[in-house]
Amino acid sequence: MNASKSMQLLAVAHNYQEQDKKVLIFYPATDTRGDVDTVSSRIGISKPAIRIDDKINIISVVKNVMPDCVLVDESQFLTKNNVLDFTRIVDELNIPVICYGLLRDFKNQLFEGSYNLICYADKLEEIKTICTYCNKKATMILRFMNSEPIYEGEQVQIGGNEDYKSVCRKHYFDPIIETPQNKHDAEYYYPSYIPKK
Ligand SMILES: [Zn+2]
Q: Model-level pTM?
């Protein structure tokens, strides 16, 4: 769907482990990609990960292992309490926590996890992605259902024939479905995009 967040997380984990340092990877249970207890990237690398559900005590899990670093995938799905637990791991256990996630959902609202990370994180870093339709920075996520853009519905859709694209603001509101007005842009920026209509 977007920037290779999981790949970056796995690269950081690899760097720590290469120096014989311990890393713990967490992911929220609402992540429905089907992969249980691993974080994997599209290029096929994966590492074991700990699922965050209602029952887990994140702080005691981390205390038992005392890793050199904690990594969190799909952090947009964290709850406020999860985020506060991770701040305690930084402040009380002195262990760095790096969270990887999306900022906004397809309705262009902040996810709960992302909102709370903005409020509580020491530092925010942007992983840049290019718009699907042009060369501008992608700042938004557009949801497609049966190839039509949609702007309403549940934040997390389970199953269904849906697809997400990273887009700039202009193409969020006006994804390229060829018209005389945007035909030139479409061809200029994205010559391989030929609407099937
Ligand atoms: Zn664009």
A: 0.80
